[in-house]
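Example 3.2
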Amino acid sequence: MTLYLDSSAFIKRYVDEEGSDTVEALLAADPEWVTARHTLVEVVLALHRRLGDVEWAAARESFDRDWDRSYVVSLDDDACRRAAEFGVATGARTLDALHLAAADRVGGRSIPIVTFDVRQAVAARALGFSVIGA
């Protein structure tokens, strides 16, 4: 099985918080990870805001390794149009709709979405995705 990881799932790998153990177990059990291009921006900025300089540098290095091993979905015109459709249909926020469109592109409803964002999880379920986390 392949997992679609949103930003909230990646962040739990580098910041010890509720759900971090769940993410670690999921990712250890499934080496095939997929995410969208904008995840890079979301994760780097979130880590920078939440961590001190030393912790941020270590987290960024770990994230860069994870990023290199992930399949990254481009956010081209088709993906953005699909995200807009999903946003209209579910009320999903912009970045959440982009995650949903990226997951849809790589696996349709067959790819589980790992997220700890409750609003995104609600939108994903409304579209028929399987959600792990939230």
